[in-house]
Design goal:
4 helices; 197 residues; disordered N terminus; three-stranded antiparallel β-sheet; PH-domain like; four-stranded antiparallel β-sheet; alpha+beta; 2 domains
């Protein structure tokens, strides 16, 4: 299985275990404080770069519709609008949304270790989800049309004790291959001695 677009951890202070499919993937830096002693990183991913455009799309479309509406109102003479100023405000708003989306993309890291699933996100408020592999009850691969067009997808996790999804790896490249690797490690996971499943 070849997965050249999946990003993996580059060795720092901790050992890593890279499956054959992860052989030639771009590195993602994982803060050492997230990794427990003796834990091995299997995959470390970021969302696809398309995340920036796709997450910004609804806002961008709304701003464009607003600008076109203002232009039509001005052109049919219902009101005199400062179109140049309005255009600059619209462009600034779209640029600001893209900057925020970029920061959201930079702050996201998805990690599979030999023991846990992790998801780190947040620009100002950092949100870290972690769950032992043996506690993952269910995984779903979600491929909405907007993501499927670009060959990306979202991997959703539900843990034991809840029927609802608790975390997701959003808009990842090569989603089917990533899902296969994650499911294989979940299948192999064994609870620590003396701990219930």
């Amino acid at each position: 299985m070849k997965a050249s677009h999946i990003q993996t951890f580059e060795p720092m202070a901790t050992a890593t275990a890279q499956p054959e499919s992860a052989a030639q993937m771009a590195p993602v830096v994982v803060p050492a404080r997230l990794i427990q002693e003796g834990e091995e990183i299997v995959l470390a991913l970021k969302p696809s770069g398309l995340f920036i455009l796709l997450i910004s799309a609804p806002f961008t479309i709304a701003v464009i519709v607003l600008a076109v509406g203002a232009y039509l109102i001005d052109s049919i003479g219902l009101a005199q609008l400062p179109l140049q100023s309005l255009a600059l405000v619209c462009l600034a708003a779209i640029a600001l949304r893209l900057v925020v989306a970029f920061l959201q993309w930079v702050s996201r890291i998805y990690v599979l270790t030999n023991r846990r699933i992790l998801r780190v996100r947040g620009v100002l408020n950092i949100d870290v989800f972690e769950c032992a592999l043996h506690r993952i009850q269910h995984t779903s691969l979600v491929l909405p049309l907007s993501e499927r067009i670009f060959a990306i997808g979202t991997l959703v996790f539900a843990t034991a004790g809840t029927a609802l999804p608790e975390a997701a790896w959003v808009m990842i490249a090569r989603p089917s291959e990533v899902h296969e690797i994650v499911v294989e490690y979940i299948r192999r996971a064994v609870p620590p001695p003396g701990q219930d499943v």
